[in-house]
Amino acid sequence: MTTNGDAENDAPQAEPAPRSKARYALALIPLAVFAGFAAVAGKMLYDQDVNGLDVSAIPSALIDKPAPTLALPPLEGANLPALTTQAIAGRLTLVNVFASWCVPCRQEHPLLKQLATDPRLTIVGINYKDRNDNALRFLGELGNPYKAIGVDPNGKAAIDWGVYGIPESYLVGADGTILYKRVGPFDERSVRDDLLPAIARAAQRG
After folding, report:
1. SS3 for 142-196, per residue?
2. Rounded distance between C-alpha atoms, residue 47 and residue 55, angstroms
3. What angle do CA 61, 64, 69 make, to 5 degrees?
4. DSSP alpha helices (H): ranges in 11-70?
5. Which residues contact 57 (CB under 8 A, 6 or more apart)?
6. Average pLDDT over every residue of 87-94
7. In this model, does residue 77 exceed pLDDT 50?
8. Residue 31's pLDDT is what?
9. H or E element, residue 121
10. 206 pLDDT more than 50
11. Cα separations (Å) of 145 from 9, 102, 161?
12. Residue 194 CB: number of other CB atoms within 10 A?
């Protein structure tokens, strides 16, 4: 004979409310916060104006001062000379810091190729923390605007030049003085409004 107590024990027990989904959602909160922070940080690095901060306009302590010494070995297989101070002496030069893994470097590269046709200007590259074969593939795919390339596998030269993050470019006068600095990739506006006027002023100075 089944008593009321036994019947209560035999009855299906109500399952507790599922908590796994709630715990999963809570676990995702830190990840979502980190992803949001990373997105904002990336935008601040390359956008022209984020909350009033124009990273391309960050002043450089090297402006109007002699460019740091260049003594970098050549990119093997590129058939270009090593990048040395002597290689750029006496000519108006754009020193561009780039790498094959740098997406904004790819974005600005067509503009560098256009600038390479300007007879007033010589473009050279510092290949930053890159693999030789990847750098060669990068140039093979996109073309080569550089008259010389020096490899900087450990980033020491970039530190000497005060690089914030690549791509970065420095306009160096014929006398070896840094005249202009661009943080981040060139676009049509920055070339038109900033770089070309700097080139024109340098050309007038001789």
Report:
1. HCCCCCEEEEECCCHHHHHCCCCCCCEEEEECCCCEEEEEEECCCCHHHHHHHHH
2. 8
3. 75
4. 20-46
5. 183
6. 96
7. yes
8. 52
9. none
10. yes
11. 83, 17, 21
12. 17
Residue 10 banded pLDDT, cuts 50, 70, 90: low
Q: Report pLDDT digits (tens) over 155-169.
A: 999 999 999 899 999
- Contact indicator for 100, 129 with CB cutoff of 8 Å: no
3-state secondary structure of 50: strand
Q: Which two tokens stand for residue 205?
A: 């100075």
- Arithmetic mean of pLDDT, 175-184: 96
**Could you tell me how many helices (H) and strands (E) the chain has, helices first?**
8, 7
User: Minimal CA–CA distance to 97: which of 143, 55, 156, 47?
Assistant: 156
Largest distance between two CA atoms of the chain: 112
Residue 36 has pLDDT above 50, yes or no: no
**Inter-residue contact 72 to 82 (CB < 8 Å):** yes
Interior angle at CA 100, CA 128 and CA 115, nearest 5 = 85
